[in-house]
Amino acid sequence: MLLGTVIGYATATIKHPSMKGWKLSIVQPINSERQPEADPVIAADSLGASPGQTVILNSDGKAARDLIGHDKSPVRYFVIALADE
């Protein structure tokens, strides 16, 4: 699991069929001091996080495919919780 800050949304006119209907958030991973760490990632977001909100990400590819409901989905990251401040 990773802590991150939503910095925006991704849109695509062409994407894998399994991603149709999913909100894709751009999330900047952060450390325990809430400083940026690593490169931003794209995460499937069923919770509706807003830019600036802190979220908890899961990076388990199998769990992501189970959530999406497609065995061949390229999704790796997904939002599992909105973090309290």
Describe this structure in words.
This protein has 85 residues and is mainly β. It has one domain: OB fold (Dihydrolipoamide Acetyltransferase, E2P), CATH 2.40.50.220. The protein contains one helix and five strands. It has one helix spanning 61-68, and strands spanning 2-10, 23-30, 41-45, 54-58, 77-82. A five-stranded mixed beta barrel has the order 1-2-3-5-4. The model has no long low-confidence stretch (mean pLDDT 94). Keywords: Bacterial microcompartment. Its main location: other. InterPro entries: EutN_CcmL, EutN_CcmL_sf. It is found in: Bacterial microcompartment. This is EutN/CcmL family microcompartment protein.
Comma- or semicolon-separated keywords:
85 residues; OB fold (Dihydrolipoamide Acetyltransferase, E2P); five-stranded mixed beta barrel; 1 helix; 9% helix; bacterial microcompartment; EutN/CcmL family microcompartment protein; EutN_CcmL_sf; EutN_CcmL
With strands numbered from the N-terminus, the spatial order across the biggest sheet is 1-2-3-5-4
The CATH architecture would be Beta Barrel
Q: According to CATH, what is the class? A: Mainly Beta
Q: Looking at this structure, what is the CATH superfamily?
A: EutN/Ccml
N-C termini distance:
17 Å
Kindly state the mean pLDDT as a whole number?
A: 94
Radius of gyration: 12 Å
Structural class: mainly beta
What count of structural domains? 1
